[in-house]
Amino acid sequence: GSSMGQFFKQYLEPIKLNDVQIDWQSMDLSYLTEDNFAKHISEIIKKAKPIRGSDLVMKASNIGGDLLIKYKDQPDFERIARQFGIFEEWKDGVPRTAYKGIVVFRFQTSRRVFLISPDSLKQLGINDV
Q1: pTM of the predicted model, to two decimals?
Q2: Do residues 64 and 73 lie in contact, with contact meaning Cβ atoms separated by under 8 Å?
Q3: In the list 24, 77, 87, 119, which could disulfide-bond 71, CB 3.0-4.6 Å?
Q4: Radius of gyration of the chain (CA)
Q5: For every one of its 129 residues, what pLDDT tens digit does the chain have, with 9 covering 90 and above?
């Protein structure tokens, strides 16, 4: 791609092929349609615990469950992404992998961290968390 492979070793090389069988035919994936997904992710985000300030990784390590971190702008997102060691690149004004300005990643097992832009909550119809 256009990155000339600069991110391959850090982000792509560690990915391994799933070795767990999944019966996709029996799974209800209807929550993945656009309308359903917006509702689905909104409900999850509303339940996530907000964390703020410095030492976000330490705070995240000491809190159970899903977490919500708001970022103000691109430099703020990049600062937070570096702390967690996630992909910090943007393209066309949004972080790569973002859905409505939201980047989701796993932190220490199954805990999800939601990095949320200033407009994300409004786009999902959430007043505030």
Answers
A1: 0.80
A2: no
A3: 77
A4: 16
A5: 556 666 677 777 888 888 999 999 999 999 999 889 999 999 999 999 999 988 899 999 888 899 999 999 999 999 999 999 888 888 888 898 899 999 999 988 778 999 999 899 888 888 767
